[in-house]
Amino acid sequence: MELPFAESFKIKMVESIKRSTRQNRIKWIEEAKNNLFNLSSDKVFIDLLTDSGTGAMSDKQWSEMMLGDESYAGASSFFKLKNAIKDITGFDYYLPTHQGRAAENVLFSAKIKEGNLVPGNTHFDTTKGHIEFRKAYAIDCTIDEAFDTAIDHPFKGNLDLIKLENVLKSNPKENIPLIIVTITCNSSGGQPVSMENLKAVRQMSDKYGIQVFFDSARFAENAYFIKIREKGYAHKSIREIVKEMFSYADGMTMSAKKDAIVNMGGFIGFRNKDDYDDASVFNIMFEGYLSYGGMSGRDMNALAQGLYEGTEFDYLETRISQVAYLGQKLKDYGVPVQYPFGGHAIFVDAKKFLPNIPKEEYIAQTLAVELYIEGGVRGVEIGTLLADRDPETGINRYPELELMRLTIPRRVYTNNHIDYVAAALINVYDRRNGITKGFKITKEAPILRHFTVSLERV
Ligand SMILES: *Cc1c(COP(=O)(O)O)cnc(C)c1O
């Protein structure tokens, strides 16, 4: 008998989770104004809202916490993290920040001015928020294949080089402070960018004299997909692939809450000292002194250890296989899901799932609420609510894809939990024709509205 796949870890500490009844959940979600962010976590049985900061740290990470150096300046923890970043990414300079969006805030304060253009593959919501907050524009140059959930393409995170070059050649260089490549591309479905594409973007940016920064939250998962799917990389280690990826960038922003498996933390990596110096001023102003920037010494230690664990092949195989396990169960039943499966989540195509709901009634949000009512599973909308209104016209932006994301936390749930999630969603699928009404907004914030929006049944 062929030996089956099994996780590359065993469990040393557990946390209880509670079941609830359908009646409970109908009441709770209404009290939460049909916004899943408003639910307290004890009302959720399986929480797939995000994989951000929700991972389980290892015994080695917890022991690193005890070794943290909390000196204000020059802490050994700062240097431990510096060495890990240099070792894994190759960047000589770095600034610690309290999380990924803080890294964006600091870097963009140094680089982006009003009216600038920032091309890239689909920008992450906080990235776009920080660009638009500065009255600059995020230009999406992702390949068209990314927007069709049924097309099988190994690197749906890739940039369309023609779209990118059109932006670069039709605008003055001074107006484009940087290109941002998001690896993996979260907003288009956790889809990877190929090494070939990263290299081509580098060559084009050199031709036009523009810098490239990677938004790197899931860089290790990107490297895993390159190893598995791209010709010439099967025999390279994840760390070799990661090194090559970053060799094509001038710097990186990092939300360490993802692939570095910590609950809080982030940083900016820089190739050259001038960029580091420019950003340092803002780091001191917004985050903290240069050698801690919003993080405790113990957290920098855990992050340094997490960078090594997150780039181990066995860990990545365990994680990405679990995501695919959920995807395959749903796909086999006929539930419309983004394919090939992404690294950190399964994306359900809500337009195909609920064809009776008009786009003005928040299709993916409707599906996420139904799944919660069905099984106490919390997913998240990646659709019209997330897309926000156009900052100039105030009109709702309707993205091509209405997705419900089921995000798998790292090293947290077993495959029994995954079976439960699949069963709950399949139950909703079986009764999909009876779901004919969505939601309307009763209250919203001017930017990043999805976090706090209030909704009412139509
Ligand atoms: C999570 C994430 C961010 C923002 O990081 P936070 O730590 O949540 O502030 C930015 N970009 C990408 C691609 C992310 O996944």
Structural features, described:
This protein has helices spanning 22-31, 59-66, 76-89, 100-111, 125-133, 161-169, 195-208, 219-229, 238-247, 273-286, 297-310, 313-333, 350-353, 363-375, 384-387, 415-430; strands at residues 46-47, 93-97, 117-120, 137-140, 178-182, 211-215, 251-255, 266-270, 345-349, 377-378, 380-382, 403-407, 439-443, 454-457. Helices cover 40% and strands 13% of the residues. The protein has 16 helices and 14 strands. The chain has 2 domains: 22-51 and 313-457, Aspartate Aminotransferase, domain 1; 59-309, Type I PLP-dependent aspartate aminotransferase-like (Major domain) (Aspartate Aminotransferase, domain 2), CATH 3.40.640. α2 runs antiparallel to α11, α3 runs parallel beside α11 and α4 (100-111) crosses α10 (273-286). The protein is globular. The protein starts with 21 loop residues before the first helix and ends with a strand. It is of the alpha/beta class. Strands 2-8-7-6-5 form a 5-stranded mixed sheet, sandwiched between helices. It has a 3-stranded antiparallel sheet with strand order 9-12-11. Bound molecules: pyridoxal-5'-phosphate.
Shape: globular
CATH homology superfamily of the largest domain: Type I PLP-dependent aspartate aminotransferase-like (Major domain)
Beta-strand portion reads: 5-15%
Question: CATH topology of the largest domain, which one?
Answer: Aspartate Aminotransferase, domain 2
- Rg measurement, Å: 21 Å
The SS-based structural class is: alpha/beta
Q: What ligand molecules are bound, each kind once?
A: pyridoxal-5'-phosphate
Note poorly predicted spans.
Answer: none
Domain module count: 2
Could you say what the CATH architecture of the largest domain is? 3-Layer(aba) Sandwich
Oligomer: single chain
How far is the first residue's CA from the last residue's CA? 55 Å
The CATH class of the largest domain is: Alpha Beta
Number of strands: 14
Q: Biggest β-sheet: count, sense, barrel? A: 5 strands, mixed
Average pLDDT metric: 96
Overall helicity:
25-40%
The string of secondary-structure elements, in order, is HEHHEHEHEHEHEHHEEHHHEHHEEHEHEE
> In what order do the strands lie side by side in the largest sheet?
2-8-7-6-5
Q: How many helices?
A: 16
